[in-house]
Amino acid sequence: xxxxxxxxxxxxxxxxxxxxxxxxxxxxxxxxxxxxxxxxxxxxxxxxxxxxxxxxxxxxxxxxxxxxxxxxxxxxxxxxxxxxxxxxxxxxxxxxxxxxxxxxxxxxxxxxxxxxxxxxxxxxxxxxxxxxxxxxxxxxxxxxxxxxxxxxxxxxxxxxxxxxxxxxxxxxxxxxxxxxxxxxxxxxxxxxxxxxxxxxxxxxxxxxxxxxxxxxxxxxxxxxxxxxxxxxxxxxxxxxxxxxxxxxxxxxxxxxxxxxxxxx
Length: 264
Description:
With about 260 residues, this protein is of the alpha/beta class. It is built from 8 helices and 10 strands.
């Protein structure tokens, strides 16, 4: 057993490996063992020492992964056995990442913990496609919500947000996109601009832009899946993609996706 176990939670950012923080890279370089998610870009693993143990723990919708309780136990066990255990999590560990649960569990064993914040996809992905979440003429605030609760239901906060004029950024909601759109339509938001982006900030990025009334059909036709984020609000019309028609947007994104697949 190592004399000085330590756990560091590192936010990997939204997908582009260059969007991790310098502090996050330094933590990776000091790792004795690295536990990483599917949403963390594999290129980041190269920053960890070659001799470090690297353990994949999954955590992607619809894919096999360890249960959260198993990850908590493995993280603690790794720190006690190897020393510095680094937990690499997509986005920011404390934005729908269950990072606090991991820290809370580790502290029960008296293990020192550190959190290195990451750039959340909630803000990075819209920015990367030119969509500001706030704008003095159209949006004074934005909500970041989950599309699916731990009970696999729509969040009640969505019902409140549907009555707001704020920009809505919905994570983990692509599989419930039609339900979300129907809820917004019921609140008079059918014509509000809407966008779905899959694999944002990566070479595999694909997106569709439309209105609340059309976005579910567009995403289905384009086979947009997870991981993805939904952005709803007048600001969507300000993005780079707003100059194109919905058909042109889809064609452009499909070409990018096909080219990146060939290159890989």
